[in-house]
Design a protein that fits this description.
Layout (H helix, E strand, L loop, with lengths): L5 H4 L12 H12 L6 E5 L6 H13 L13 H8 L5 E5 L6 H11 L8 E6 L6 H12 L5 E7 L7 H4 L3 E4 L5 H14 L6 H11 L3 H13 L10 H9 L3 H13 L4 H20 L11 H11 L1 H18 L5 H13 L7 H17 L22 H7 L28 H5 L13 H15 L2 H8 L2 E6 L3 E5 L3 H8 L2 H12 L4 E4 L12 H6 L19 H8 L11
Parallel strand pairs: 1-4, 1-5, 2-3, 3-4, 7-8
Antiparallel strand pairs: 6-7
Helix pairs in contact: 3-4, 5-6, 8-9, 9-10, 11-12, 11-13, 11-14, 12-16, 13-14, 13-15, 14-21, 15-16, 15-17, 15-25, 20-23
Bound molecules: zinc ion (ZN).
């Protein structure tokens, strides 16, 4: 392996080499080309999307002796010194660690020592971390910047910046890269660096990188360093399955396995959080998920198993574990405690675990599964201890049998050819496969056919969209009412109604209409027993309050839910 990291080695040197930030590149190149560059820019966006790199390219081109069409030559003395970090024209301040008034003052003092005819570029990274005094000092110089000075303020969190500062800047937003762009880039880098790797390594790096070019390249490098062997890659689905099945032993076995392969608990937790977030997004906004497209329906199916409330609760709990790890002598214990809590939600009395239990009950009732009544972890009858061994036991569980295809379903997406998406007891206890020639159509039958074959036959995106909602009623003779989790989601489902209705119609052997039902209180016509139970209101008196100190603020929850974010103490 090269001694220089891939990220540094393939860091863009010109605007044209920046990936996925075309709008930023266009604005800056045009400004430089016409000599109308601003005096203060605000670059905002997630980490690893190229903010600082772009600031350095801007600094380079502004002082380049031979710029071409808004791009630096990268060969003149000035360009080379900026690249080496030895230029007197570029000053960088990391506001996360240098956020006092003094730090900003000493930076600003340099502003007045400018060399005539040259541009001084001041890059303030993580500028939202500046204390109030330092912010005031910065604001003062932004109000009347000397003509030869350009400020670039970079931040992952522009909302935390004072309005007065923000309003004095040109704000350019950096985006996470679309997975296809990033995949292409990773392939190109691997090829150029002479790293011979399997395509699955690119997929793994993509998933771990979460849309950040820097993180994806680091992941690629790490995977390549281990010989590109993805069998070393942690199976995060195993954890999700353990949460879904409330299987503590399986979750702990998965930790032990990952640690034995050399993964440290903190990184493992971060990866797991990111995976859970992808699962959550696969239900709520599939287009935002950073995975290759054919994996999307796998994710949606996993996500459906755990449920939205379960996913949110897992993200919150693991996010909290990450914070706790900073002070814990053994981070693995913090992870294991969270996993025990997450797989034994019958012991929690916070609203999140109540919700998760409720959601699991609802799902079990709807699917006719007896599992909700079972103890959390299976016990070995001989030893009386919890059974470990995740995957091994999973394979011994009965598999769902795909329903027999009826004549009408002989289409390119024949449901019988689709892999069974439900495994475990629910599927085997479900009613027998539908038969097109019997029984008048009703809600129960629609749900049966839907679960047994129609959902699996849909295109991944449509399937993911519809997996987040459910059929709630049936109006004879042929109208099924589908309820999305919220109106915005419903609007996205609406675009695919006819396609889904056609698939459903083919499966039941007669024409079916689907209408969106967005009023939760709407009276339902063909109430089945299952439905009556799922509609039963929760008695608020039965819910237990969490002690006030444990209630996370909105910022806490968001920080925890999104692994790219960092929790940082303010010093002021
Ligand atoms: Zn140059």
């Amino acid at each position: 392996m090269a001694t220089q990291s891939l990220y540094r080695r393939y860091r863009p040197r010109r605007f044209a080499e920046l990936k996925g930030q075309e709008h930023v590149v266009r604005a800056l190149r045009e400004a430089v080309r016409t000599g109308r560059e601003g005096q203060a820019y605000l670059f905002s966006g997630p980490r690893g999307t190229g903010k600082t790199t772009t600031a350095r390219i801007l600094a380079k081109v502004l002082n380049c002796t031979a710029p071409v069409d808004g791009e630096p030559c990268c060969e003149c003395e000035s360009c080379v010194s900026v690249e080496r970090g030895t230029s007197y024209d570029v000053h960088e301040l990391d506001a996360a660690s240098n956020n006092s008034v003094e730090d900003v003052r000493s930076l600003i003092d340099k502003v007045s020592l400018a060399t005539p005819g040259r541009h001084k570029v001041y890059i303030l990274d993580e500028v939202h971390m500046l204390g109030p005094g330092a912010s005031a000092a910065l604001l003062k110089v932004l109000e009347e910047p000397p003509p030869h000075v350009v400020f670039v303020l970079a931040t992952t969190d522009p909302q935390r910046l004072k309005d007065t500062i923000r309003s004095r800047t040109q704000h350019l937003q950096f985006h996470l890269l679309p997975s296809d762009t990033l995949a292409e880039h990773l392939r190109w880098v691997a090829d150029d660096a002479g790293i011979d790797i399997d395509p699955s390594v690119i997929d793994a790096a993509l998933e771990q990188g979460g849309g950040s070019a820097r993180d994806s390249l680091s992941a690629l490098e790490l995977l390549a360093a281990t010989g590109g062997d993805v069998s070393d890659h942690i199976d995060l689905d195993e954890f999700v399955a353990a949460f879904t099945d409330s299987d503590t032993g399986r979750a702990l076995a998965a930790v032990a396995h990952a640690v034995s392969m050399g993964h440290d608990p903190r990184t493992l937790t971060e990866h797991l959080l990111r995976h859970l977030r992808n699962l959550f997004l696969s239900l709520m906004a599939p287009e935002l998920v950073q995975v290759r497209h054919d994996r999307l329906d796998e994710l949606a199916s996993l996500a459906r198993g755990l449920g939205a409330a379960g996913l949110v609760r897992s993200m919150e709990r693991l996010g909290q574990a990450l914070v706790e790890m900073r002070f814990a002598p053994d981070p693995r214990i913090m992870l294991e405690i969270s996993l025990v809590q997450l797989t034994r939600d019958d012991s929690g009395d916070d609203t999140a675990s109540l919700l998760a239990r409720l959601e699991r009950l609802e799902r079990a009732v709807r699917d006719g599964s007896p599992r909700a009544a079972e103890p959390a972890a299976p016990v070995d009858p001989e030893t009386g201890k919890a059974v470990l061994g995740g995957r091994a036991r999973r394979s011994s569980e009965p598999k769902a049998t795909p329903p027999a295809a009826t004549k009408e379903t002989a289409s390119p997406t024949t449901p019988a050819e689709a892999p069974p998406t439900e495994n475990g007891p629910e599927a085997t206890t479900a009613a027998p496969a539908p038969n097109a020639s019997e029984a008048p159509l009703d809600l129960r039958r629609v749900i049966e056919v839907w679960d047994a074959s129609v959902r699996a036959s849909l295109k991944p995106l449509v399937r993911a969209l519809f997996s987040a909602g459910e059929f709630v009623a049936f109006d004879p003779p042929s109208t099924a009412r589908f309820r999305a989790p919220n109106p915005a989601h419903g609007a996205r489902c609406a675009a695919h109604l006819s396609e889904v209705a056609a698939a459903l119609g083919r499966a039941v052997g007669s024409e079916v209409n689907i209408v969106l039902d967005d009023a939760p209180e709407a009276p339902t016509t063909a109430a089945s027993p299952a439905e009556e139970i799922t509609e039963e209101p929760v008695d608020p008196a039965e819910l237990v309050d969490v002690p006030p100190s444990d209630v996370p603020t909105a910022v806490d929850s968001i920080t925890r839910a999104f692994p790219g974010a960092q929790v940082v103490e303010r010093t002021d």
